[in-house]
Each structure stands twice: as C-alpha cells, then as structure tokens.
C-alpha cells in the first residue's frame, strides 16, 4: 500500500495524453508482424511505415487482442488444404472473427491511408 502511495505523485508527471491512453493489450511482436506484412503490401517506405503503424494502432483500439488472434488463426487455417481447413471456412464463429477483423481494417484504412 505504501508503494502505491509513493508512486501516486509520479502519475502527475506523465503528459496528459499518456494518462488517458487505453491499456495496450497487443504485444509488440504482434504489432511489428502486422506492420511488416502491411509494408510488404504497401511499399517499404517511411510513409508506409507510418500508415501501417497507424493501422495496427486503430485496429487495436477496435478489436481486443484475443479476437485479433482468433481472426488471424482462422485466416491462416483457411490457407491450408484438407479436411481441417473446412472447419475454418464454413462456420459462423470463424466467419464472425474474420468479419470483425475486416471491419477494424476498413476503419484503419479510412483513418490511416
């Protein structure tokens, strides 16, 4: 309890925007992976880096990380062949995960590109 009380004054030293930011639940590796893929599709330029970084930030504000992972898993499994991939193509939950990601990506496209 005393540690919390000692750290409380430090909160006021943070810039105002840092105090109001939502919790970042996307790990750095996931954000970097998205940016690398986005830049591969949009060019390896500083402008693409800025826009792709913006896009994953927007997606992270819309879609919880667990939902993002579920959608990415569905999309990866749809790329495989065989009977198991059918489970990820023709089910409502799988389609829902992908639809949520696509909506978040559309919002990011509007705001960042």
Q: What's the gist of this structure?
A:
With 113 residues, this protein is mainly α.
**How much is the average pLDDT?**
85
Separation of the first and last Cα atoms: 46 Å
Strand coverage percent: under 5%
The biggest sheet, with number of strands, parallel, antiparallel or mixed sense and barrel status, is: none
> What structural class results from the helix and strand content?
mainly alpha
Spans where pLDDT lies below 50 across 5 or more residues: 1-15
Report the total helices: 7
How much helical structure, as a percent, in the residues?
A: over 70%
Keywords: Signal
Organism: Tabrizicola soli
Signal peptide: 1-18
Protein name: Rap1a immunity protein domain-containing protein
Describe this structure in words.
- Residues 1-18 form the signal peptide.
- It comes from Tabrizicola soli.
- Keywords: Signal.
- It is a single chain.
- The chain contains seven helices and no strands.
- The protein has one domain.
- The model is unreliable at 1-15 (pLDDT under 50).
- It has helices spanning 2-11, 16-20, 28-42, 46-62, 65-78, 83-87, 92-112.
- The chain has 113 residues and is an all-alpha fold.
- α3 packs across α4 (46-62) and α4 (46-62) crosses α7.
- It starts with a helix and ends with a helix.
- 77% of the residues lie in helices and 0% in strands.
